[in-house]
Amino acid sequence: MSDILERLRTETRDAHEAIERDLAWETRVTTPDGYRALLARFWGFHAALEPALAAVLHDDAFLDPRRRLAHLAADLRFLGLDDAAIAALPRPHLALPRDRDEAFGALYVLEGSTLGGQVIAKQIGRQLGLNPEGGCRYYAAHGRETGAMWKAFRQRLAEEAARGRPETIVAAATDTFDAMRHWLCAAPVPIPDGEGGPVVKVSQRG
């Protein structure tokens, strides 16, 4: 295990455990409405963060396979939302990554979630009868390639940390966990009509 991965696992443990405790995903995915509301929150988070990551990294070959906003949109369409309703979903006002170190801290959270997502996808399949081709594309993430994608990310993360600022990567990962927890655990998202949903402030990095 690389030094940066060990630091991330150790120093973000409290923030990671807090989101697992507060999110209560098992309860949220027991009904289609609860599951759809959870995906709507995830869509807002990814809609705010993914463009910022792309703008900082300038590396489509690395980032594009890891984007999951389109997966969320596909799931929401399957669950009854049209494109206008999806575009109108609220997004958080995040403290967006300003450099590569902050971007890789945020990506640690997003990429790490694909591992647990495999377990959640199976539960959603049992609970709601959904699968990657119909309503569960987001949690299925990289499918059978999830392990390989995580291994590749860990290698890239170690390279970035070796020439960057590990403390900034760790701080950004902690901030991302906290921002995600506040956003996902807020009141359920109303499904709006029309375009251009509201922007909701979640956190502000000092």
Explain this structure:
The protein is mainly alpha-helical. The protein has one domain (3-191): Heme Oxygenase, Chain A (Up-down Bundle), CATH 1.20.910.10. It is built from 11 helices and 2 strands, in the order H-H-H-H-H-H-H-E-H-H-H-H-E. Strands 1-2 form a two-stranded parallel sheet. Helix 4 runs antiparallel to helix 6 (69-78), helix 4 (32-57) packs antiparallel against helix 8 (100-128) and helix 8 (100-128) runs parallel beside helix 11.
In a few lines, what is going on in this structure?
With 206 residues, this protein is mainly α.
Helix and strand composition category: mainly alpha
Percent of residues in helical segments?
A: 55-70%
Instruction: Look at the structure and name the CATH superfamily.
Output: Heme oxygenase-like
Strand content: under 5%
Kindly identify the CATH topology.
Heme Oxygenase, Chain A
Number of strands: 2
Q: What is the helix/strand order?
A: HHHHHHHEHHHHE
- Average pLDDT, rounded to a whole number, is 91
Characterize the biggest β-sheet: 2 strands, parallel
Shape: globular
- What Rg is obtained from the alpha carbons, in whole angstroms? 16 Å
Give the strand order, joined by hyphens, for the main sheet: 1-2
Q: Supply the number of structural domains.
A: 1
CATH architecture: Up-down Bundle
Oligomer: single chain
The level 1 CATH classification is Mainly Alpha
Amino-to-carboxy terminus distance:
31 Å
How many distinct helices?
A: 11
Low-confidence segments, given as residue ranges, are 193-206
